Amino acid sequence: MIGKLIILWHYLRTKYRFRLMGRDRLKRWQLKRILRHLKAVRRLSPFYREHWGHSSLAEWERLPAIDKTLMMEHFDKLNTLGIRKDDAFRIALEAEHSRDFSPMIGNVTIGLSSGTSGNRGLFLVSARERLAWVGCVTAKVLPRSLFHRERIAFFLRANSNLYGSVDSGSLKFDFYDLLDPLEEHISKLNGSLPTLLVAPPSVLRFLADAKRSGRLQIAPLKIVSVAETLDPLDERYIREAFGQIVHQIYQCTEGFLASTCAHGTLHLNEDIVCIQKEYLDAKLRKFVPVITDFSRRAQPIVRYRLNDILTEAAAPCPCGSPFTAIERIEGRCDDMVYLRPSRRQGPLVPLFPDFLTRVVITSAPVVQQYRIVQHAPDKIDIFLLVEDAERQRVQEAVLLSLESLCRRMECALPFVRFRDYDHTPGAVKLRRVERRFALEADHQAV
């Protein structure tokens, strides 16, 4: 009973408290929560106590930042529950192998990130934090109120007690394992008829194909994209197939960071996290988020620098929310493309992933799917799914568009190899733009 009351309190707070709050008032409220949280973290976490030294919490925005490497290196002293990294990894890996995601350490949920960057991360969520998360996420994501009966179909590579906590009362939660063949899920979906469909965009594309062909009969009230970057090409295809807005959740090991409003605009969840902007290009509104989550103490996340590139919206959202609006999540900093300069010598020229995305989707509207993989500063593979009759024309159009981009950015046109599209949705995350070489010290970009 107490658990249900905690969920309800966080649901109502999330749903209604910030609706009419202005930006200035939000920042004042946020600051009070952050300072109170940091005092507790300094007391409870040996790592942060040492990391901050004698720094004043009043100037918390200048506290030394951390990243995933530092967090995992000091995991045992960073978390406030005395949980050892080796024990948490063992339980999380056993769950992935057995596909039984119920085991916990005491009443603490253990999670494991997918590790697309080669560095898998752990997350800990206490029982009370789990209930708060359920209240918050249901307020932001459910198609109707908490008091309506909803059937949730959730596609992901690994389940969690965190997600399973949603399955209660009027909410029916069904986990669809992406390690199973996707075709096998079609009949299950047709039988359960979910009102809320949550899946990575590559999986939503597959389901959109099934919907168009008549094999999938579901008509969910809301569709939510998770886990992968939602590409404009995919968004349009899924929206047209299901006839509705494609919503998004931006969540990772480090927290529940953003979600879409009724207009489909992604907003930072500034009622539970504070996100500082480390601008990569202020004119283009592109920044790396530095996160302080003031809603979690089991595994404190304070001044944590993510490796993602976000583009801030140019104008406020018509929904009137005081939370920062985001135009797009582009992907990881590691997937910025670097090309040789037009002149013979000089540093490599950086290109944001969406520059390459636009090269493809604006020059050739008939492209159905694509991937761009950079192997070296002068070598790129472009994978295209296109009708055979259009292939030659599309390749020429894409190459002309890439040449135009290179002239504007004053970089040399790389050798481009066109290949057939080869990604199968499921266990491996889709990355539309991917860089597969490391920057050397003598080739650092401008």
UniProtKB/TrEMBL annotation:
Stored InterPro entries: ANL_N_sf, CapK_Type1_Caps_Biosynth, CHP02304_F390_synth-rel
UniProt feature coiled coil, ranges: none
NCBIfam families reported in the protein's UniProt record: aden_form_hyp (TIGR02304)
Protein name listed in UniProt: Adenylate cyclase
